[in-house]
Fold this sequence. Notes:
With 298 residues, this protein is an alpha/beta fold. It folds into 2 domains: 2-123 and 267-297, Alpha-Beta Complex (Quinone Oxidoreductase, Chain A, domain 1), CATH 3.90.180; 126-243, Rossmann fold. The protein contains 7 helices and 16 strands. Strands 3, 5, 6, 7, 8, 15 and 16 form a 7-stranded mixed β-sheet that branches. The protein has a 6-stranded parallel β-sheet with strand order 11-10-9-12-13-14. A 3-stranded antiparallel β-sheet has the order 2-1-4, with no helix packed on it. Helix 3 (124-137) packs across helix 4 (153-164). The protein is globular.
Amino acid sequence: MRAATVSRSGGPEAVEITKVPVPVPGPGQARIKVAAAALNPVDAAMRAGVFGSAGERIGLGWDVAGTVESVGPGAPWSSGDRVMGLATGHRTPLGTHAEYAVLDADALAPAPRTLDDTHAAALPLNALSAAQALDLAALQPGDSLLVTGAAGGVGAHTVELAHHRGLKVTALASARDEQFLRARGADHFLSRDEPLPAATYDGVVDAALLGGRALAPLRDGGTYVGVWPGQEPAPERGVRIAALDVRADGAQLAELSRLADQGVLLARVTRTFPLTDAAAAHARLAEGGLRGRLVIVP
């Protein structure tokens, strides 16, 4: 089968389409016939060697949507089940940007009935990141939350889920995104060109990676959650610092699938690319300015 891989660190040109054996599911695993797999910034980071992969060939792709083709012993799925899932790990021999992918069965969830595979594939990493960031923030209904980078994949889902959980949400993003974010549940909006208010919020989910700049808007004793491990600032004024390390969680993803069917979560796709054009998809991701995911279609 074909898979998008890298054997050297570099730019989009480092992405190769290689022939690899079809993976075999082990105990508690399922093989997915991939229908669609989103491209995320973490894939660009893996390609660029941020996590260290010199001298070894690694597969790209974390998100996946498709159908179960076969299962290993003990896997509670059946052939033909339509699923989505998240394959985490920085040195996975084979990612989801491939014709087939093997995932642990407990990393899978039923795909939303109201979404096609392309849009379902845009949900797992971003929606799980948003949900787990809010879990780390541990805020209560009525508490105030600032979401930086609110128009991005993780940020927008954080706004949606925070609103669903009863938080008072302020979205920080480009002025052109205000109407969209208010429609997704933001109670208040801040343009990223405006000065940040001081000591205002109970929590911050920093999807824009502002780091120390995102501490000033927090009240003393508030909570900062960073979405990129290792980039969080040092604590001050009793602020609690938490770092997201997103994990695959099929049960949580199943709940997020239900919320997508209910309209709480909006899956956004900007463009699809065939697997053979994976390098071009990486090049488009590098250009920035996206308001939805790029999705690889085998």
